[in-house]
Design goal:
Catalytic activity: tRNA(Trp) + L-tryptophan + ATP = L-tryptophyl-tRNA(Trp) + AMP + diphosphate + H(+)
Organism: Friedmanniomyces simplex
Order of helices and strands: EHEHHEHHHHHEHEHHHHH
CATH class of the largest domain: Alpha Beta
Number of helices: 14
Distance between the termini: 28 Å
Strand order of the largest sheet: 1-2-3
Helix content: 40-55%
Shape: globular
Number of strands: 5
GO molecular function, one term: ATP binding
Largest sheet: 3 strands, parallel
Structural class: mainly alpha
Main location: mitochondrion
Radius of gyration: 21 Å
Bound molecules: adenosine-5'-tetraphosphate
Family: Belongs to the class-I aminoacyl-tRNA synthetase family.
CATH superfamily of the largest domain: HUPs
Strand content: 5-15%
């Protein structure tokens, strides 16, 4: 029996990296699942507040993100879709796991080190919630007894931590209440920024031209791809080390070209070898536009259907709470809280 769980922060409209690295796989899993597979997808708003958020903006982003999950093809009759903060068991399990998690291990997490690199001098500014982010993430996955978690490459380390916490908990309390999950890394594991191809495409990057949003118009997509940082080497080759910008565009092309008959990025680059950078960018913009077009249109319709969005969120929260209650009972029994 398989249970799939994954989450995304409602911190803005998802970008192409979120889609190719995670969301598209959520829909593929849903559409090709064996009958006894459970799919649970969460808008992880408690993760979003590990950095300062404007309440009004956050409320709006939650609505937009839910519309987007439906627009990409998640079906609430097949998948449980809910806001994390509507199910208190996530925070409750997080506390219990916090009493098991090692601060040394958490301090070595790449994401923590990256985010704190600029704030070295001021531990006053560094918040406990940001430090314990992976513990909440472990709780998200473990509270639903997920067996498989589809994520982008940047989350692999956090999932390793979740397994460690689950095994540690089970061992300490002589129980099998928690299930160590497997990580499912999407083939498009790391889509890079268009303006800085050495950094991953991200929602929080200050330059909006660094990412393509799933709501971008065709015109905006074309202008962002046209302005993408490449290099002045002649011809098109796939070489992520020496040509990160060009290789990122080839990656995007490879993963968005639905008619592609190529078995690898190298092969698709070979086909483009004699073409200009401009021709490559035009093809990338074409395939991105054809990937995003339908999603964009259905998002616009859904966003205005508040009644439907509220119903989906309420029903999703109810189903997620039931799923979590089973684990919480076993966990509380094991610890001696119940
Ligand atoms: N560039 C990416 N390439 C492939 N997968 C990606 N993911 C995120 N960026 C890429 C995957 O998307 C899922 C949701 O991740 P998130 O909500 O943390 O999104 P984000 O865009 O990473 O958000 P931020 O605001 O930019 O946060 P930080 O700065 O913390 O990364 C995950 O499965 C993730 O792997």
């Amino acid at each position: 029996r398989k249970t799939i769980f994954s989450g995304i922060q409602p911190t803005g409209v998802p970008h192409l990296g979120n889609y190719l690295g995670a969301l598209r796989q959520w829909v593929d899993v849903q559409d090709n699942a064996a009958p006894n597979t459970t799919m649970i997808y969460s808008l992880v708003d408690l993760h979003a507040i590990t950095v300062r958020q404007d309440p009004k903006q956050l409320r709006q982003w939650k609505k937009e993100s839910l519309s987007m999950l439906l627009a990409i093809g998640l079906d609430p009759n097949k998948s449980t879709i809910f806001h994390q903060s509507d199910v208190p068991a996530h925070s409750e399990l997080m506390w219990i796991l916090s009493c098991q998690a090692s601060t040394g291990y958490l301090g070595r997490m790449t994401q923590w080190k990256d985010k704190t690199a600029n704030e070295k001098d001021s531990s006053e500014k560094l918040k406990l919630g940001l430090f314990s982010y992976p513990v909440l993430q472990a709780a998200d996955v473990l509270v639903h007894r997920a067996t498989h978690v589809p994520v982008g490459h940047d989350q692999a380390q956090h999932l390793e931590f979740a397994r460690e916490v689950a095994n540690g908990f089970n061992h300490t309390f002589g129980t099998d209440a928690l299930i160590p999950p497997e990580t499912l890394i999407s083939p498009a594991k790391r889509v890079m920024s268009l303006t800085d191809p050495l950094a991953k495409m991200s929602k929080s990057h200050p330059n909006p031209k660094s990412r393509i949003l799933l709501t971008d118009s065709e015109e905006v997509i074309r202008s962002k791809v046209k302005a993408a940082v490449t290099d002045s080497i002649d011809g098109i080759t796939y070489d992520p080390e020496r040509r990160p910008g060009v290789s990122n565009l080839i990656d995007i092309l490879y993963h968005t070209d639905s008619r592609s008959a190529y078995s690898s990025q190298e092969e698709s680059a070979k086909d483009l070898a004699g073409r200009s950078m401009r021709a490559l960018k035009e093809r990338v913009a074409d395939t991105v536009e054809s990937t995003v077009k339908r999603i964009r249109a259905s998002y616009e319709d859904l966003l205005h259907d508040e009644f439907y969005l509220d119903r989906v969120a309420a029903e999703g929260a109810e189903k997620a709470a039931k799923s979590a209650a089973v684990t919480m009972k076993a966990v509380k029994n094991a610890v001696g809280l119940a």
